[in-house]
Write a structure and sequence with these properties.
Elements (H helix, E strand, L loop, with lengths): L1 E4 L2 E4 L4 E7 L7 E8 L6 E6 L5 E3 L7 E6 L4 E6 L8 E9 L14 E2 L3 E6 L1
Parallel strand pairs: 2-11
Antiparallel strand pairs: 1-3, 3-8, 4-5, 4-9, 5-6, 7-8, 9-10, 9-11
């Protein structure tokens, strides 16, 4: 199971840190991803980190968001700085089994999904 938390309401320019706690899986052997879905839009990959530490960011968040993982705590984080109104969405974490440096970008490649946490950025 994946439990996402840390969302909320923040003013533009502010920051939030999302957390996704995993249970029931060998976390260190899983690649993790953060997705978001805004109203009326398709779900999109925001950031991903492989079990081996490779990292991907969508162009829209490069330089503002940072993904990290703490295998000892079975948790993946998404630090979001300089938030913009267009970052408003429900954010989901996802897990995909597999060791190595591979980054997974398609929804269908992920095995488990968290319940989502709402991020609202006011202008």
């Amino acid at each position: 199971q994946l439990q996402a938390s840390g969302g909320g309401l923040v003013q533009a320019g502010g920051y939030l840190r999302l957390s996704c706690a995993a249970s029931g899986l060998t976390f260190g052997s899983y690649a993790m991803g953060w997705y978001r879905q805004a109203p009326g839009k398709e779900r999109e990959l925001v950031a991903a980190i492989s079990s081996g530490g490779s990292i991907y960011y969508a162009d829209s968040v490069k330089g503002r968001f940072t993904i990290s993982r703490d295998n000892a705590k079975n948790t993946v984080y998404l630090r979001m700085n300089s938030l913009k109104p267009e970052d408003t969405a429900v954010y989901y974490c996802a897990a995909r089994g597999g060791r190595g440096l591979s980054i997974f970008s398609r929804d269908s490649e992920y095995d488990y999904w968290g319940q989502g946490t709402q991020v609202t950025v006011s202008s």
